[in-house]
Amino acid sequence: MKCHLPNHPTQLYLIRHGEVDEAYHKVFGGSRIDMGLSPVGLEHGEALARWMTGSKLDAIYASPMKRVAQTIAPLAARRSLTPLILPDLREVDFGDWTGLRWEGVKEKFGVSAFDWLETLDAAGIPNGESAATLIQRVLPCLQQILTDNPHRSVAVACHGGIIRVILSILFDLPLSRMAHFNIEYGSVTVVEIQPEKKHGVEIELLNFCPLRDGFR
What we know:
Number of domains: 1
Structural class: alpha/beta
Number of strands: 6
Shape: globular
Strand content: 15-25%
CATH architecture: 3-Layer(aba) Sandwich
Largest sheet: 6 strands, mixed
Strand order of the largest sheet: 3-2-4-1-5-6
Helix content: 25-40%
CATH topology: Rossmann fold
Order of helices and strands: EHEHEHHHEHEE
CATH class: Alpha Beta
Number of helices: 6
């Protein structure tokens, strides 16, 4: 009951999917390649479910992509919650970078893959999304989640790129600035939103990985 009082913040558990199949490591798969998880990635999902056992959770929202569904399945089963799929939580469309390894992007386009967020901000990926178009599609999802869940605790299972877009929106900062936040496979970032406070959005936990930190 306490968790739904008006002075209790809305909590967002921003969950990045687990490690993907080895063939896709350091490959720009984005929204065009629907790869599955590696064995370690499946462990990420199990560890996440165990870590969240004692946490209040009212709803789960998720990207439609396979790697996210596999990650969130153990948590959904434990909590008897059916994830609400929001198609616009899918990963970034990397356009002509899709399927290329990081070194391949440098060879073909002369751009460092480490600067991918800056490239998105500059709309510099051929036939791919820009920061502006990403925000346009992710913002309605975030608005829906917040409108439907005031003073509740919600898991948002998606992708590293989309978590950074959400943080960019919440903190009203350029997407390129989100390069300061490391978002690893199988990690959880917890954001609390309480509009009546001076600092209405606060990061309570950043890039916590239950598997790495012992919840096997």
